[in-house]
Amino acid sequence: MTYEKFLNLKADKQEIILNAAYEVFSKYGYQQAPTDLICEKGGISKGALFHYFGNKENLFIYAFETTLNKLNDAIDLKSVTSYHVFDFLPYITMQKLKTLEKYPYMMSFLIRSIRDNKALLQEKGILDLLKHYESSQTFLYQKIDYSTLKNSISIEDFITWQTFVSTGFITMYPDHPNKEKLMKQLITFFDTVKENFSK
Predict the structure, then answer these.
(1) Positions of E strands within 37-86
(2) Which domain holds residue 156?
(3) Is 84 helix (H, G, I), strand (E, B) or coil?
(4) CA separation (Å) from 43 to 3, 17, 96, 159?
(5) Against a cut of 0.90, is the pTM above it?
C-alpha cells in the first residue's frame, strides 16, 4: 500500500493523526487499540481513517515503518564534532529527542510493537527494516571512541547503563508534566556521567 491519500494531507494533519496512532498503540497494544480512540485523538472520522489506510493493520505497519525511517533520519553524522564517548552519546541522544519532542509516544510505540507483534512484523516483511535500523545503531556505537572511559568500567556495562537510562527516559517522557525539567535532568545526568566515569 502506498498511503498516497494520507500523504496528500497537510504535514501538520499527518502529524496529528500519526501521534494519535502512536499514543493509542503504545498504551493499548496493536490488538486492543480502539480505532475510535485513534480517530478521536486524531480529529478525523472513522471513515476517513479507513480511507487513508484501509484498515488498522495498515495504519500500524505505516506507523512502524515511519518510526524507523524517522529515527534513521534523526542522526546527522555530518554535524558530529567529536566521537568521544562523553560527547557522542549525549549528541545522538539529543538528536533523537528532537524527534521525540514532535512525536512523544513514538519510542514507546516502537518498544511495545517489537515486544508484542514480532509475528505480524515478520509476516509483513518489516523485520528486515528493523534489522537495518538495528545495524545502523550498531554502526553508530562502533564509531564511538571509548579511550576516555575509565579502564575499570567495561564498555559493555557502560552501554547497558546508558540503555537503561534511555529506556526509562522514553517511558517517562510522553506523560511527564514538566518536559523541560526532565530534559535538564537528562543533561545533568550526562554531565555527572562524564565527571565520574572519564579518566
Answers:
(1) none
(2) 4-197
(3) strand
(4) 18, 7, 27, 40
(5) no
Please, are residues 129 and 68 in contact by the beta-carbon 8 Å criterion? yes
Q: What is the pLDDT along the chain (199 residues), one digit of tens a residue?
A: 789 999 999 999 999 999 999 999 999 999 999 999 999 999 999 999 999 999 999 999 999 999 988 888 877 777 888 889 998 888 888 887 888 889 999 999 998 999 999 899 989 888 877 887 777 777 777 889 999 999 999 999 998 898 888 888 888 888 899 988 988 898 899 999 999 999 9
State the greatest distance between any 2 C-alpha atoms of the chain, in Å, as a whole number: 60
Q: How many domains are contained in the chain?
A: 1
User: With contact defined as beta carbons under 8 Å apart, do 95 and 76 qualify?
Assistant: yes
**Which CATH number belongs to the domain containing residue 117 in this structure?**
1.10.357.10
Torsion angle in degrees (nearest 10) through CA of 23, 28, 29, 35: -70
Nearest to 36 by CA among 51, 46, 21, 28: 46
C-alpha 23/C-alpha 77 separation (Å) is: 29
